[in-house]
Design brief:
It is found in: Membrane. The protein is an alpha/beta fold. It has 2 domains: 3-58 and 67-285 and 307-408, no CATH class; 419-551, STAS domain (Transcription Regulator spoIIAA), CATH 3.30.750.24. The chain has 22 helices and 9 strands. A hairpin with a 2-residue loop joins strand 4 (430-433) and strand 5 (436-439). Helix 2 packs across helix 15 (349-363), helix 11 runs parallel beside helix 13 (309-317) and helix 19 runs parallel beside helix 20 (490-505). The two termini are 61 Å apart.
Length: 552
C-alpha cells in the first residue's frame, strides 16, 4: 500500500505509543470535547436539525476522521461552513434526502482520495477561500438573529438573506428581552474569558452560566428542552437512508457541494495543523477518512463531517500529539450523552446563538480580507465577487465564479509575464576554442536570435506569435532560444510550428536552443523536430554549428 494511503494512526503506533503520550492525548481530547459539546449542538440547530444529530456527527464522524485520517491532530465534526448547505438541503429534500446526500458525498470523497485528487485543492485561489469563508460567516450570523433576539415569526424563516432580514425586521416588535440578556451574557463571558483566562473552556462556561441563570430566574426564553424535548442518551442503531434512483438524482447536486466543501475545509484545516506542528499530512488518506466518516455519520443519523480548524487548533494547543486525542474527544462526547443528556434540556437557544455569533465573527479572516482589498484590483474583484455571490446567491456559485475569475486573473498575469525579444549584442556570445576566445559570428547579418522568457502558454501565445511572424523570414538563420521557458503548452507549440512552416517556405534555417524535456516533448508532439528543425543545447552551440557550416 502506498505511504500516502496509510492512516497516521498506523504511523503513530509503529513509532511506539506509551502511557505518557496517552495521558497527554487524553487531556487534549477532553479539552476539545468541552469545546465541541456546545458547538456541535449549536451547529446542528442552525443547520435545521435537532441538536442530538450534531453530537452524533461529532462522535461517529470525529472518531473515524482521527482513526483513519492522514493528519495526526485533525479533529472532525460538524462545521459552521456547512450550516447553509445543510439547512438548504434539508429544506428541499427533508431529513432522508439530507442523510442520503451526506452518504453520497462520503462515497465521492473516498473516490477522490483514491484518485489522489486532494493535491488539486491547493489550486483554489486564496481570495476565493477568504471571500467564501467571510460570506458563510455573514450567513451564519444572519441565521442566528432570530434566536439572539428571541423573535417570533409567523411561519418558517425565509432562506435568502435579503428576505430573512426583511422578515426579522417586520417581527421586531416581538423582541424577547430575556433572550437578548441570555445571548449578551454568553457573548460577554466568552470574550472576557478569552482575554483574562484564554486556556479556560469559555464557550462551555458561558453556556453553563446562561443555562443556570435561565433555570434559576425562570426567564421566558426557549431552551433545547422546550423546542426539541432534550437529547437521547446514546447513539441510535445504524440505518440506511431510503434510497431510490429518483431521490439520488434529486440530491446529487447537494452531495457534490457537500463533497467539494468538505474536501476544501478538511484539507485547509490539515494545512493549518501542519503549520502548527511542523508535520505533513497525507491529503489522499485525509479525503478517504472524511468520506468514510460522512458515510457512517449518515448511517447514524448525523450530518456532514469535516476537519474543523478551530477544534484542531485547540487540540494542538492542548498538547495533542496523535490521532488518539481525536478519538478520545469523540468518546468523551459519547460519555456526556450517556451520563448527562438530561442537562442539555436546560440550555437556552439564545445562548447557543451567542456561541455561533462568536464563531461567525472568528470565521472572517479580517486582516486577510483587508489586505486582499488593498493588494491589487484583480484580487479585490475575485474576493468581492465570491463574497457577494455566496451571501446573496449561492455557495457553490460563489466558489465556481470566484475560481473562474481567479483563473482568468492568473492567465492574464502569466500572459503579461512572458517576454520575447532579440538578444543583443551578439558580441557577448563567445566560446572557448583551444587557448583563445573567438567571437561567434558577431553582427552576422544572416543570423537573428530571439529569446522567449517565461511560461509559454495559450494566454501569451498570440503576443509571441505576432512577434515571431514578423521576423521568421528576415534572415538565413533563425535561432529561437527557449532556455528561459520552464513550461510550454500545446497552443504555444502550435505557434512555433506555424513559425517553422513559414521559415521552411522561405528557406530559413530554424534552430531551437535550450529546450528542456517538457518543452521538447510539447514541440515533438506538434512535429517541431529534426530534421525540420535543429535542436541545440545553447545559443553558443547553435552559433558554432552555423560557423562550422559557413567555414565548410
Amino acid at each position: 500500500m502506498p505511504d500516502s494511503l496509510v492512516p497516521k494512526t498506523v504511523s503513530v503506533l509503529t513509532e511506539g505509543y506509551g502511557l505518557a503520550r496517552l495521558k497527554v492525548d487524553a487531556l487534549a481530547g477532553l479539552t476539545v470535547a468541552i469545546v465541541a459539546l456546545p458547538l456541535s449542538m449549536a451547529i446542528a440547530i442552525a443547520s435545521g436539525v435537532t441538536p442530538d444529530r450534531g453530537l452524533y456527527t461529532a462522535i461517529v464522524g470525529g472518531f473515524l476522521v482521527s482513526l483513519l485520517g492522514g493528519s495526526r491532530v485533525q479533529i472532525g465534526g460538524p462545521a459552521g461552513a456547512f450550516i447553509v448547505l445543510v439547512a438548504a438541503t434539508g429544506a428541499r429534500h427533508g431529513l432522508d434526502g439530507l442523510l442520503l446526500a451526506t452518504a453520497m458525498a462520503g462515497v465521492m470523497l473516498v473516490a477522490a482520495g483514491y484518485l489522489r485528487l486532494g493535491q488539486y485543492i491547493k489550486f483554489i485561489p486564496y481570495p476565493v477561500t477568504v471571500g467564501f469563508t467571510a460570506g458563510i460567516a455573514v450567513i451564519i450570523f444572519a441565521s442566528q438573529l432570530r434566536d439572539l433576539f428571541g423573535l417570533t415569526l409567523p411561519g418558517s424563516e425565509p432562506g435568502p438573506i435579503v428576505e430573512k432580514i426583511g422578515a426579522l425586521g417586520r417581527a421586531a416588535d416581538t423582541l424577547n428581552g430575556a433572550a437578548v440578556l441570555t445571548a449578551a451574557l454568553t457573548i460577554g463571558i466568552i470574550l472576557a474569558l478569552r482575554r483574562l483566562r484564554p486556556h479556560w473552556p469559555g464557550m462551555l462556561i458561558a453556556v453553563a452560566a446562561a443555562s443556570i441563570l435561565v433555570a434559576v430566574l425562570h426567564l421566558p426564553t426557549e431552551t433545547i428542552g422546550t423546542r426539541f424535548g432534550g437529547i437521547p442518551r446514546g447513539l441510535p442503531l445504524p440505518t440506511l437512508p431510503p434510497l431510490s434512483f429518483e431521490k439520488a438524482a434529486a440530491v446529487f447536486p447537494d452531495a457534490v457541494s457537500f463533497a467539494l466543501l468538505g474536501a476544501i475545509e478538511s484539507l485547509l484545516s490539515a494545512v493549518v495543523a501542519d503549520g502548527m506542528t511542523g508535520r505533513r499530512h497525507r491529503s489522499s488518506m485525509e479525503l478517504i477518512a472524511q468520506g468514510i466518516a460522512n458515510l457512517c455519520s449518515a448511517l447514524f443519523g448525523g450530518i456532514c463531517v469535516t476537519g474543523t480548524i478551530a477544534r484542531t487548533a485547540t487540540n494542538v494547543r492542548a498538547g495533542g500529539t496523535s490521532p488518539v486525542s481525536g478519538m478520545l474527544h469523540a468518546i468523551f462526547l459519547l460519555l456526556f450523552m450517556l451520563l448527562a443528556a438530561p442537562l442539555a434540556s436546560f440550555i437556552p437557544l439564545a445562548s447557543l446563538a451567542g456561541v455561533l455569533a462568536i464563531v461567525a465573527w472568528n470565521m472572517i479572516e479580517k486582516p486577510a480580507f483587508m489586505a486582499l482589498l488593498r493588494s491589487s484590483y484583480g484580487d479585490a474583484v475575485v474576493l468581492l465577487a465570491t463574497f457577494l455571490i455566496v451571501v446573496f446567491r449561492d455557495l457553490t456559485e460563489g466558489i465556481v465564479v470566484g475560481f473562474a475569475l481567479g483563473a482568468v486573473l492568473f492567465i492574464n498575469r502569466m500572459a503579461k509575464s512572458i517576454s520575447v525579444g532579440e538578444t543583443k549584442p551578439l558580441e557577448m556570445l563567445q566560446v572557448m576554442s583551444g587557448e583563445e576566445e573567438h567571437p561567434l559570428i558577431a553582427d552576422d547579418p544572416d543570423t537573428v536570435i530571439y529569446r522567449i522568457s517565461g511560461i509559454f502558454f495559450f494566454g501569451s501565445a498570440a503576443t509571441v506569435a505576432s512577434v515571431l511572424d514578423r521576423i521568421a523570414d528576415q534572415r538565413r538563420n533563425f535561432i529561437l532560444d527557449c532556455s528561459e521557458v520552464p513550461f510550454m503548452d500545446s497552443t504555444a507549440a502550435n505557434v512555433i510550428e506555424g513559425t517553422l512552416r513559414k521559415a521552411e517556405r522561405t528557406g530559413v534555417r530554424f534552430i531551437i536552443t535550450g529546450a528542456n524535456t517538457q518543452v521538447r516533448r510539447a514541440l515533438y508532439q506538434h512535429h517541431v523536430r529534426p530534421p525540420r528543425v535543429l535542436m541545440r543545447a545553447s545559443v553558443q552551440a547553435a552559433l558554432e554549428t552555423i560557423r562550422s557550416e559557413n567555414i565548410a
